[in-house]
Structures are given as structure tokens and as C-alpha cells.
Amino acid sequence: MTALLAFTADLRARRSGRRARGQGGAALAALALVLAGCSASSPDEAAAISAAARMGNATLPAPAARAKPIPMKGEATQGVLVQAGDSIGVGLGADDWAAIEHLGLPPGIKVRNVSVSGQWMLTGLGERDKNLFPNRDPNHASVLLIEQGTNDLMGGNSADYLYQNILRPFVAKAQEAGFYVAVNTILPRADDGWMSDPQHERERVDYNKLVRANAVGADTVIDVASDPEIGDRVDPALSPLFADRIHPNRQGQERLAKIYAAPIKLMLRYPPRAPAGV
After folding, report:
1. Domain limits at 234?
2. What count of Cα atoms within 13 Å lies in the side-chain half-sphere of residue 249?
3. What is the DSSP letter of 163?
4. 160 vs 129: CA distance, rounded Å
5. Which of 20, 177, 256, 269 sits 20 to 30 Å CA-CA off 236?
6. What is the number of structural domains in the chain?
């Protein structure tokens, strides 16, 4: 913990002129939801992706930046889905009902929710070899979902630093380990601590723009912030899908499950990704 706080302080010192805004919270955990590549090879697959896009925008990387594996026919019955996330990934505010655990996947697909309340993405990156990558299935698709909330930004990291220096190596190392990687945009937040500094929201908006552009080469971007029911169009202080202006409630988690389900089920149909050097 001491090392993590020291490293975070160093990040703040090297940011581009922004002041630190508090420590946020660094909790131990890591998670990986392994999403397979997302190139649709049939009208049914294209329709599935399109429907997901309307409910949260499952955004595909540029064709030159993603692998184009051939999906197996029918629904995947085996594989691994890992989520590396924070309190939203845990289901805080929804009685621990986490969307990732309720996608209607067959019992042969193992779901590993490695989310921890208060976790920074920085922690997930640091714990990857211990908590995330050992979950890979060498014989079936392994999907890692990097479920990102506001903790890193609240703790003082800029959008650019978070994207380039934390998310980029996280995605690259997970792909090298044999995972298909999905990343999400960050949902809105409206609690007093967040709203006390307008820079918080500016950084969230900027980070989401970077995620959508996908220069890091994630296999899939799940743009929850664009969803009309739980994303940027709603005020978390007034929305019936939020429990406390930060965390989705049970209804909000159910909405996230609907957003995740189609692209994740599709990606689980792809063949396993070989680790780098194999």
C-alpha cells in the first residue's frame, strides 16, 4: 500500500500542471474480462453488435488494429470471462448484484469477478500476474473486461496519463498473456466530492474520448457512457438507475448486463488467443 501511494504521488508530481485532489482509494484487486475480437462475419452477428451499440455502444476498433478470428457456430459453452474493476464492478449500491455475473452465460463459461471497491486501475495493472492472468483458459476464448470507474481520476491522475501510462500497458500485457480485452468508458458521477472540482468531469469526458478512439488497440470498447438510460444523458443525482449518485443500483446493474451481454457472448465464440511468443 505504501509503495502504491508513493507511486501515485509521483504520478501527480509529473502530471501537466494539475493539482492533486486527494487520494481517492487504492484497493487491492484485479480483474480481467476476456473479450474476444469483434469482427462480425454474418448478418446475425452484425445485428447483435448493432443492438449492443444502441444500448451502450460496443465500439469496434479499426479493422487494421484487430484480429479477425472466425467465430464458431452457435453459442459458446466454454471459456473464461474475467473482470478487473472497482465498486461498480462489485455491485456496490445494488446489494452486490454485479452485472458481469448475470449475463446468462452457459455454466461451462467461468466468470471471475476480481473487482474490489475503491480499486484504481493502477492496482489492477500491478496485480495482473497474481489475480488476473492465471484465470486464462488455454483451450477456449478468455475475455478480460477492464471495468473502469472514477477512482484514478478522483485520485489526481489526468485523463491522458491514465490512458497512456496505465490503460495502454494494461491492454498490451493482457493481450500478450492470451486475453481478448474489452475496456469501458466511465459512467457519470454527481456526488459532492466529485462536483466540488469541475476538473474532475472534464477529465472524465476527455478520458472517454480517448477510450472511444481506441489508440491502445483494445479488442472491444464498450461505451456505457453513451447509453441513453445510464450514460451521459442522465443526471446520477436524479436517475432511478443510481443508488447514491455514484453507483448503479440493481436496476442500473441490470442495464449494464444488457449492454455487456451481446458483445461478450459474441467474443466468447472466438478461438483462444495464443500468448505472445507461443
Report:
1. 29-267
2. 12
3. I
4. 25
5. 20
6. 1
Is 114 within a domain? yes
- Asked if residue 10 is part of any domain, the answer here is no
The position carrying cell 489526481 is: 156
Tell me, what amino acid is at 126? G
Cα dist from 240 to 194, 221, 248, whole Å: 19, 25, 9
pLDDT tens digit at each of 278 positions of the chain: 444 444 444 444 444 334 333 333 333 233 333 233 333 444 444 444 444 444 555 544 443 444 566 777 889 999 999 999 999 999 999 999 999 999 999 999 999 999 999 999 999 999 999 999 999 999 999 999 999 899 999 999 999 999 999 999 999 999 999 999 999 999 999 999 999 999 999 999 999 999 999 999 999 999 999 999 999 999 999 999 999 999 999 999 999 999 999 989 988 999 999 999 87
Q: Is residue 261 part of a domain?
A: yes
What are the beta bridge partners of residue 83? 113, 145
The answer to whether 111 and 246 are in contact (CB under 8 A) is no
Task: Give the span between the Cα atoms of 265 and 258, in whole angstroms.
Answer: 11
pTM: 0.79
Q: Decide if 24 is inside a domain.
A: no
Alpha helices in the chain (DSSP H): 2-14, 43-54, 87-90, 121-126, 151-154, 159-161, 168-176, 192-195, 198-213, 250-267
CATH number of the domain residue 58 falls in: 3.40.50.1110
List CB contacts of 268: < 8 A, sequence separation 6 or more.
Answer: 36, 76, 79, 81, 105, 109, 140, 141, 143
Sheet holding 180-184, edge to edge: 58-59, 220-222, 180-184, 142-146, 79-84, 109-113
Distance CA 128, CA 125 (A): 5
